[in-house]
Design goal:
The structure holds 2 protein chains of 2 kinds.
Chain A lengths: L14 E9 L1 H11 L9 H6 L9 H16 L5 E8 L12 E12 L4 E10 L2 E12 L2
Chain B lengths: L17 E2 L2 H10 L10 H6 L12 H13 L11 E10 L8 E14 L2 E12 L4 E11 L8
Antiparallel strand pairs in B: 1-3, 2-5, 3-4, 4-5
The chains are: A alpha+beta, B alpha+beta.
């Protein structure tokens, strides 16, 4: 397990190691059930295409959850999160094959605030497209 | 069909109490593929200083969607759910949500606006325990694709 970051140990510009998370249709079906979001565009290719989407797309909240996991894995403490927000800029298209899609998350310390608070700027890409913008988390570090 | 602007500023009654369970938290953690034991093992969570199993950061959407969902699905609001995509989401945490919390969600429609061919609807949902302790505020913007187009 990675050493937990401390407020004194990071500076504005400190980069976090990248991480990659897979997204397959099964993840979306599980996420629909777990979250209660049964919007058909996340599991029904026929309807997704009929409303102008290229294919089934991931729940935005699934993508946000993966980027959230990236932050909690870094801090080691989900309770360290004070604020977390994203804009969903592009859909994550999840084809019905054995590969699915992939999310690549990177992050860096954008700013240090008082009270041991740190602002993280996150970048999330799928197939080289930015799928989240303005992804930002405020965490309190020891 | 355009979204009914009369709903701007409307606050919906709090949802029925929702009891956060360890099983639901574990199911959610499985769904997002996060193996963190804090989401599954009460002893591990307690050893880390938490009163019970911790909910992942985006878990409050399960609760806030009950409130915001009731608002968005109000037939008089005029949102075509198949045309809805999520635009923005933000959480402000007062503390983590824990297994055993019994919470309600109170949603206000803070904004309805047109952006090109689309319409955007923003909600603010306050999640608090039934004892009145604020836990998390969820801000959500949904985009209704083509919502601003005039239907013949």
């Amino acid at each position: 397990m990675m050493e937990r970051p401390s407020y004194a140990g990071v500076e504005a510009g400190t980069e976090l190691p990248p991480a990659t998370y897979p997204v397959q249709r099964l993840n979306l079906v599980m996420y629909a059930g777990a979250s209660g979001d049964f919007n058909v565009i996340h599991w029904n290719e026929r309807i997704a295409k009929s409303v102008g989407l290229p294919d089934v797309i991931a729940h935005g909240m699934f993508t946000m959850a993966e980027a959230g996991r990236y932050v909690t894995d870094w801090t080691g403490d989900p309770g360290a999160l004070l604020e977390y927000g994203v804009r969903f800029s592009s859909p994550v298209v999840v084809p019905d094959d054995d590969t699915g899609a992939e999310l690549t998350v990177t992050g860096k310390v954008q700013e240090k605030l008082d009270g041991n608070r740190v602002v993280l700027a996150l970048t999330v890409r799928s197939a080289d497209v930015k799928v989240l913008t303005r992804a930002r988390a405020v965490v309190r570090l020891p | 069909m355009a979204i009914n602007r009369e709903f701007r500023g409307r606050t919906f009654p709090p949802t029925q109490p929702y009891e956060v369970s360890r099983v639901k938290i574990a199911e959610f953690a499985d769904a997002i593929g996060d193996p963190n034991p804090l989401y599954r093992d009460r002893d591990v969570a307690r050893a880390a200083g938490h009163p019970d199993v911790v909910a992942p950061p985006t878990f409050p959407i399960v609760v806030s969607m009950r409130g915001a969902g009731e608002a968005v699905l109000d037939p008089d609001l005029g949102v075509d759910y198949a045309m809805v995509v999520h635009g923005e989401q933000r959480f402000e945490y007062h503390r983590p949500l824990y297994a055993g919390d019994v919470v309600t969600a109170s949603t206000t429609i803070s904004d309805i606006r047109t952006a090109g061919r689309n319409e955007m609807l923003t909600t603010a949902t306050e999640i608090a325990t039934t004892a009145g302790e604020a836990v998390v505020t969820a801000y959500s913007t949904i985009v209704v694709r083509g919502g601003a187009e005039v239907n013949g």
